[in-house]
């Protein structure tokens, strides 16, 4: 899938009113905020933003953020968090990972999804960070997605969390699914990267950072992949996909 890095900007003098936007999206968003007010979903308590050592030097903290993101792919937050805790107990840094053999790293991160592949990607990426970036992580989406095992969602979240920079919307399977259910995309999208591009075309930029954690937690608790809890959802009366009684 082709990756566009900086969409969502105003082009020329096109008036804002001429742009497509989903019907009733502001009300839907406000109701999701209300449902997420307690911030007690797995992503809130064990997501990547909770996995790194906030007291570590900035360069080490950023590396830990990237590593947590790499581990989190197709893995529950609880499993990622536990793996990060085990790594941090060994003093998680670029140098400590480079000094670790593959078997040891695999034993520590197991049972994250696709752990064998992630051992390889982590070692390759960490070596690149040491050689090319002085042990830090890149500060652009373009460079981040060139690293082995780092996709667009991870890159945008790394920009948000590690660099406090909003380069785009981080879209995972939850954001992708819910955006299609709410019809926040002009036409159905087939994958998260298509959804990201579609959302960035209309969603105000000041909401880009918020939308990921809002929808991920909403997807974990209410708008489930299978058997969504529509009866508990405040958007039941205005959601195109709602299963109404």
TrEMBL record:
Keyword DNA damage on entry: yes
Membrane keyword on record: no
A GO biological-process term: nucleotide-excision repair
Cofactor(s) the record lists: [4Fe-4S] cluster
Listed GO CC annotations: nucleus
Pfam families per UniProt: HHH (PF00633), HhH-GPD (PF00730)
Keywords: 4Fe-4S, DNA damage, DNA repair, Glycosidase, Hydrolase, Iron, Iron-sulfur, Lyase, Metal-binding, Transit peptide
Reaction it catalyzes: 2'-deoxyribonucleotide-(2'-deoxyribose 5'-phosphate)-2'-deoxyribonucleotide-DNA = a 3'-end 2'-deoxyribonucleotide-(2,3-dehydro-2,3-deoxyribose 5'-phosphate)-DNA + a 5'-end 5'-phospho-2'-deoxyribonucleoside-DNA + H(+)
Superkingdom as given in the UniProt entry: Eukaryota
Gene Ontology MF terms in the entry: 4 iron, 4 sulfur cluster binding; class I DNA-(apurinic or apyrimidinic site) endonuclease activity; DNA binding; metal ion binding; oxidized pyrimidine nucleobase lesion DNA N-glycosylase activity
Alphabetical list of SMART domains matching this protein: ENDO3c, FES
Domain HhH-GPD: 71-221
EC number: 4.2.99.18
Enzymatic class: lyase
Family from the record: Belongs to the Nth/MutY family.
Record-given protein name: DNA-(apurinic or apyrimidinic site) lyase
Underlying gene: Nthl1
């Amino acid at each position: 899938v082709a990756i566009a890095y900086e969409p969502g900007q105003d082009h020329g003098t096109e008036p804002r009113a001429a742009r497509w936007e989903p019907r009733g999206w502001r009300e839907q968003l406000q109701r999701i905020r209300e449902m997420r007010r307690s911030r007690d979903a797995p992503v809130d308590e064990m997501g990547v933003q909770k996995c790194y050592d906030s007291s570590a030097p900035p360069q080490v903290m950023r590396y830990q953020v990237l590593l947590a993101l790499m581990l989190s792919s197709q893995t529950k937050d609880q499993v990622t968090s536990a793996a990060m805790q085990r790594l941090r107990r060994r003093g998680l840094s670029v140098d400590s990972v480079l000094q670790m053999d593959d078997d040891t790293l695999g034993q520590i991160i197991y049972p994250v999804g696709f752990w064998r592949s992630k051992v390889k990607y982590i070692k390759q990426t960490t070596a690149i960070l040491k050689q090319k970036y002085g042990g830090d992580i890149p500060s652009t989406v373009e460079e981040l997605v060139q690293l082995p095992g780092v996709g667009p969602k991870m890159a945008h979240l790394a920009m948000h969390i590690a660099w406090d920079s909003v380069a785009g919307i981080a879209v995972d399977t939850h954001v992708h699914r819910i955006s299609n259910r709410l019809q926040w995309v002009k036409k159905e999208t087939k994958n998260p990267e298509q959804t990201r591009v579609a959302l960035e075309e209309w969603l105000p930029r000041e909401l880009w950072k918020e939308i990921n954690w809002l929808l991920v937690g909403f997807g974990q608790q209410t708008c489930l992949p299978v058997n969504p809890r529509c009866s508990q959802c405040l958007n039941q009366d205005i959601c195109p996909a709602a299963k109404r009684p």
